[in-house]
Amino acid sequence: MIRHDYSRVDPKRRANIDHKKKQFAKAEFAQQHYDHRLNFYTLPPTAEITLEEFETWAINRLKVLSELEACSFRNKSPEETAEYMTSILNKYLPLRSNTSRSQALQEERKKDHYSHYILRLAFSSTEDLRRRFSRLETMLFRLRYKEDDFKEREQFVKSLNLEWEEVGEAEKRELRDQLLAATGGKKSAAGEEQEWCKVDWERVPELVEQRRVFLRRGKAYVPQSQQMSLVVAEFTKWLDDALELTARALPRLDEDDRLAPILAHLSQSFTAPEAAYTSSDASIDGLSAIHANAIDSLSENFPLCMRNLHMNLRANSHLKHYGRLQYTLFLKGIGLSLEECIVFWRRSFKLMTDDKFQKEYRYNIRHVYGDVGGDANRRGRGYTPYSCQKILTEPLPGPGQSHGCPYRTFTPENLSALLQRVGVQDRNVLKTVREDVQKQRYHVACNRVFEYGHQREIKKVRDEGSWSATDLDTIVHPNTYFKRSWLLKHLGEGNAGMVGDDEKMEE
Amino acid sequence: MPHSTAPDPMSAGDSQTMSETTIKPEPSTQDVAMEDAPSPAGDNKAKVELEELFDDNDSDQEFPSSVPAKSEEDLSQPTTFKISDTSTFSDPDVMRAFYQRLFPFRHFFQWLNHSAVPGPDFAHREFAFTLANGALLRYQSFPTADVFRKHCIKEVPPRFDIGPVYSTNPRDRKSLRKASAFRATSRELVFDIDMNDYDEIRTCCTGAKVCHKCWTFITMAIKVVDTALREDFSFKHILWVYSGRRGAHAWVSDKKAREMDDNRRRSLAGYLELVRGGDQGSKRVSIRRPLHPHLERSLNILKEHFQTTILAEQDPWAEKSEHLLNLIPDATLRAALQKKWDSSPSRPSASKWADIDSVAKSGALSKTSRELLEAKQDIVLEYTYPRLDADVSKKLNHLLKSPFVVHPATGRVCVPIDPKRVEEFDPLGVPTVTELLKEIDEWEGEEDEKKVHDWEKTSLKPYIDYYKTFVSGLLRDEKEQMSVKREREEQHGDAMDF
């Protein structure tokens, strides 16, 4: 089916002819035989399964996907993820290679196939779910693709019939230097044997973005070693299209009251990630309504990302767009009202004329708070404060910009200097932070700094047992950082006990 | 000679008013009626006007000539509006005259419409008007060039931006049954290069200022980006436009570029983007070796500029060499250089740059010469490689100031830049509205058989001529693609089996 994607038939008509042909000509997929471990899930399953299987298979796959998502939230490297996932995959969704000659081979693949389709049903209803599902399925596919047996993988790729134009010998010789330079290959004998194929650059956007392929006249020259990117891109594209179709077909499922509850249940248990911002982060007992002029003193309790923005703002009396956005959202999150927020920015931009501020900045602040803008924005009361994950996955700041997570964007030397400026003097802490950062564990570093800055208070609440373990869980949101920091620094002011109640409400 | 300030001041006998009233019928039906049905009113007359409508060279009603109106206006309102030294470009009368007489509406329309016959590419295109009080009026759209022109003359917007083409008419967006039916479907791939981003490496000006010295940064950027877009991505129709003050925009109008989704745009922008990292990151440029062919080529383009523009003109390290020192990876070499430069801090940058090699040769290098070379390449790139405002390019629905608009702060017209002659472009020589209007007044030529458009009397002429060529090239390609597509469809229609 894939092949038709690139033939020149009008897409609208194609769906019809092919579909009918496939559906009525020969029911070839009634009992599918799975030749390959990997699957592009192009043909829907048609065999019967029990309702119980329907549910358990789906739950198992869901477990795998949510663990994968957790890995990406924790910023694990691909290697760490692969290692972590091995046991989980073996337990919930084993998928052995042909060489294993296992009896259960076909059974496993069937389960993989069916569970994928069940989740497709469950997660096609909203744009949000679709995007998440497609991202996670792509991750899973990539993971499996990587560890697949080389030969079997090659066969699988061949079976897909992707239309790739091979680069001929003459062209290869002509472009040899550029090809090698683009892929960072060494000019060794091994490089010569590499096969290359030519595709439209649009099909390998990630390779293009990272400048990992040679481009000429709109064609990308992809080396065999980078084929994964091509296959994965193909997989995602295919899945996205299919999800779109599923979403449109979904209403017709309504008559089935056996499956609908299961599907609804599945998609509910796949709700937003744990790092979501909750309004309770804004309500801190003992902290009265915040005024614009209190920010300076409160900034002692800010996480490094926000403190850095604050210091930059004070130093330059200005912040660039993304810095303003990140900081405004955070301030909104700690409970600064719109009016006070406008006052805060107006005063902070002290070199600017009133007119310029009113014209160019005020609207944006109001938009963030949902005071102006489209219907959806106003109803949703503007944007939600950024989580660590959001801040960490955004593009790096450019010249003159200071948003983002300093643990990620600063060089180790500058980071140390910044930490010392905010009062982290301990050599050991600075050293371990540096190690964390090198391993790209930015949130670990941030939490370490938090613990260092609040060690006495944390010890106290631990000893007293006034805070539960969940209250001291890893911080994954700047607003949680502030809240916890403020509460710890104001212990014994009649609020220590309140924290637990709040946190429970979040769950 | 006075400029007419009202939209239609001319008498009924005037040919312009005549034709305008006859071709004025409801916009939506206009093209259909003109296309195939002979006008019932009178064949001869309709034909003449049709030709007028589609002919490129002669009797262009959108660019009125001053001749026919001359005598009458001189009589009726001898001194209504005369450009004087005191008129400023923000004066609505000046802007009105600009839209009436100079703005190339027809070519502008064809550029966005991709054909001479009005279609959804233009009609569903969002225009955003900046009003005189600074408010932004979004989601405006116009069925034809004529309606658009009239609107501009009536409202006299100080500037307007171009947005994407939407799936439906942007004006109807609120009356749709489903909000999701309203989405951006296509728009040119755009780039924005702004002098602002060069502030930390330019020494001549800061902020909104620009001079010939720092304009070279933009020249370099245009060369590099233009080459990459043409050679690597095989885009052909790239319109570079002076942004009116201190930067340049690019509009890639190829069909393929217009139809790219956000994802593709992001990866293309990422491909071209090199200088990253905030103020606290260390090196702005860090790249893999061997150099990607695109970077290798860019480096070759930029090398000579580095010698002239950076070392000689900008002279960035004359008094402060810390940043340069920080970029040198070798500790011993760095120490040796520091010592040398501390004793003569005002050494010009060119000498300091040469010092790096000479000191390294004298034995102060603890790393390989290869590493030093690579570090030096990085420095060259950091100081010369284009600094794109990448966010502009990444989103399909980003608004960008239209070409030929007058920059509200400088009065300069946002004229196209020919990338083949980018070296010759002088941002400070770009005419301002007031200058142009004066040129029309001062023009003394024969205007007998062939009417001369107002813009032809001004220094705007070469720019509009270039734009015309650009647009007709685009239209030709567009037409070819359409016919290829049609052929293909026909072939497939036969082969279809049901």
Automatic annotation (TrEMBL), chain A:
Superkingdom per UniProt: Eukaryota
Location of the DNA primase large subunit C-terminal domain: 300-482
Gene3D superfamilies (alphabetical): 1.20.930.80
Cofactor(s) needed for function: [4Fe-4S] cluster
Record-level GO cellular component terms: alpha DNA polymerase:primase complex
Pfam families linked to this entry: DNA_primase_lrg, DNA_primase_lrg_N
CDD domains: PriL_PriS_Eukaryotic
GO BP term, example: DNA replication, synthesis of primer
A GO MF term: metal ion binding
Key words of the record: 4Fe-4S, DNA replication, DNA-binding, Iron, Iron-sulfur, Metal-binding, Primosome
Key word Iron-sulfur present: yes
InterPro entries cross-referenced by the UniProt entry: DNA_primase_C, DNA_primase_lsu_euk, DNA_primase_lsu_euk/arc
Cofactor note: Binds 1 [4Fe-4S] cluster.
Signal peptide location: none
The UniProt record lists the keyword DNA-binding: yes
Record function comment: DNA primase is the polymerase that synthesizes small RNA primers for the Okazaki fragments made during discontinuous DNA replication.
UniProt family annotation: Belongs to the eukaryotic-type primase large subunit family.
Protein name: DNA primase large subunit
Organism (species): Lentithecium fluviatile CBS 122367
Upper classification of the organism: Eukaryota, Fungi, Dikarya, Ascomycota, Pezizomycotina
TrEMBL record, chain B:
GO terms under cellular component: alpha DNA polymerase:primase complex
Sequence ranges of Polar residues compositional bias: 13-31
Keywords: DNA replication, DNA-directed RNA polymerase, Metal-binding, Nucleotidyltransferase, Primosome, Transcription, Transferase
Region (Disordered): 1-77
Any one GO BP annotation for this protein: DNA replication, synthesis of primer
Source species: Lentithecium fluviatile CBS 122367
Protein's name in the database: DNA primase
Protein family membership: Belongs to the eukaryotic-type primase small subunit family.
Pfam families found in the cross-reference section: DNA_primase_S (PF01896)
Ranges annotated as biased composition (Acidic residues): 51-61
UniProt GO MF annotations: DNA-directed RNA polymerase activity; metal ion binding
SUPFAM superfamilies membership: Prim-pol domain
Enzyme class: transferase
E.C. number(s) listed in UniProt: 2.7.7.-
